[in-house]
From TrEMBL:
InterPro entries: FAD/NAD-bd_sf, Flavin_mOase, Flavin_mOase-like, FMO-like. The keyword NADP applies. Its cofactor is FAD. Keywords: FAD, Flavoprotein, Monooxygenase, NADP, Oxidoreductase. The keyword Oxidoreductase applies. Its EC number is 1.-.-.-. It is an enzyme of class 1 (oxidoreductase). The lineage of its organism: Eukaryota, Metazoa, Ecdysozoa, Arthropoda, Hexapoda. This is Flavin-containing monooxygenase. One of its GO terms (molecular function) is flavin adenine dinucleotide binding. It comes from the Eukaryota. Belongs to the FMO family.
Length: 444
């Protein structure tokens, strides 16, 4: 009926789904969020479960017991709703989880979530419109229903489907093999000879985790020399790529061999959208999701959007910016870009990346080189407020500090001065100053 609010389907109740739903509600849309688990939080939810859950589905979360954020909390809030103040900038996972839940409750999003609803299929509606047919299964009852929506926002994250390399001999290894997705507690490494494969954010952090308990950790990677300058504990030895796996040891490409009892794959994740019907017109090629306009809109069917694909970003702020970008067009404030504009923009950006030697798996990588320009392009095209420059600057500084001092960078404390400026302290300075203020207060 004319005048009725547009219907939005949001897939996933992690931070990207929750803030997308809040943005939709602000614009007067009608939103349903389908969440396959029984709680809010996505990748920030901790469970001891690994493998499959009680419904026979792969456990979604990759959270481990001792995780602290690798970004300062000052860039992990949302516009108008910041993470709670406290001395530290790098906080435990459970504080982030509580923050997401508080945010959802504050903006009345939680009651829009259909928990334990698995999205089984999304396909273009058969009524000749630009809408969508979404089939879901209620996991507790097994009941399947199909609903029609005007827009679909895919917010299922990308830290749930492990990417595990195939190494010659892996099937004959006598020790334990696991991916970081299934890692929960460091006790499994006690007195072991551990091989960590992969030098991304999880690889470096989990090398430190393993080193707390292991006899020796072999850290295998093929990254630039600057990573080799990182200072690790004395029981960590950096080694090159794996050549082959033997029953009780591993041979590396330089010809060296080391005895190993645990192989720990920190080799990232595959972007996976098993619910998308081929008629959705989206392909995933070595983690390159295409064709997308500005890494968000499905060019073949622009009423479908993907929130949160880019990585090495100010994640929550980017989720919110992408959601506002979508709602600007979906809500009718601006006309949807035409296909020619979207394809031209897509081809220009991708060709620029390929010309710099980037691989398909880096199609959505941002980092220091790309993220500032990316945020500005979203804001400019949709005529909306951008992410303040200070946030990008803190993100870049945090990444630089991690490379300089892997073991201690989380002692840094960031404070925002204005939209362009931040200051940084050591945690000991902040705690000391706080104690002095307390003493002075008590004295007076």
């Amino acid at each position: 009926m004319t005048g009725q609010p547009k219907r939005y389907c949001v897939i996933g109740a992690g931070s990207s789904g929750i803030c997308s739903a809040k943005t939709i509600l602000d614009a007067g849309g009608n939103v349903t969020i389908y969440e396959r688990t029984d709680q809010i939080g996505g990748t920030w939810v901790y469970t001891d479960e690994v493998g499959n859950d009680r419904y026979g589905l792969p456990v979604h979360t990759s959270m481990y017991e001792g995780l602290k954020t690798n970004l300062p909390k000052e860039i992990m809030g949302f516009p108008g709703y910041e993470m709670p103040a406290q001395p530290a900038s790098y906080v435990p996972w459970h504080e982030v989880l509580q923050f997401i839940r508080d945010y959802s409750a504050h903006y009345d999003v939680t009651r829009r979530i259909a928990f334990e609803h698995l999205v089984e299929e999304v396909r273009p509606a058969s009524d000749g419109t630009d809408g969508w047919s979404v089939t879901v299964r209620q996991l507790t009852s097994g009941l399947r229903t199909t609903e029609r929506f005007d827009f679909v926002l895919v917010c299922n994250g990308h830290y749930h489907t492990p990417a595990i390399p195939t190494n010659p001999g892996g099937e004959c290894f006598l020790g334990k093999q696991l991916h970081s997705h299934d890692y929960r507690k460091s006790d499994i490494f006690r007195d072991q000879l551990v091989l960590v494969i992969g030098a991304g954010p999880s690889g470096t952090d989990l090398t430190l985790e393993a080193a707390k308990m292991a006899k020796t950790v072999y850290f295998s990677h093929h990254v630039p020399e600057k990573l080799k300058q990182l200072t690790f504990p004395s029981n960590v030895l950096q080694v090159p790529d794996v050549l082959r796996i033997l029953p009780e040891c591993v041979e590396f490409v330089d010809g060296s061999q080391h005895p190993v009892s645990v192989i720990f794959y920190c080799t990232g994740y595959r972007y996976s959208f098993p619910f998308l019907h081929p008629d959705c017109g989206v392909q995933v090629d070595d983690n390159w999701v295409r064709p997308l306009y500005k890494h968000v809109l499905n060019i073949n069917h622009p009423t479908m959007a993907f929130i949160g694909l880019p990585f090495y970003v100010c994640a929550t702020l980017m989720f919110e910016l992408q959601a506002r970008f979508c709602v600007t067009f979906y809500g009718g404030r601006l006309s949807m870009p035409d296909r020619a504009e979207m394809m031209s923009d897509h081809d220009r950006e991708m060709n620029g990346r390929w010309s710099k030697g980037l691989k398909k798996r880096q199609a959505h990588m941002m980092g220091a080189e790309y993220q500032g320009e990316y945020y500005q392009s979203l804001a400019h095209r949709a005529q909306i407020e951008p992410i303040p420059k200070v946030m990008t600057d803190m993100h870049i500084d945090s990444g630089r500090r991690k490379k300089e001092d892997l073991q201690n960078y989380r002692n840094d404390v960031y404070r925002i001065v204005d939209e362009n400026t931040f200051v940084k302290y050591d945690i000991s300075e902040v705690v000391c100053a706080s104690n002095e203020l307390t003493v002075e207060s008590h004295s007076s």
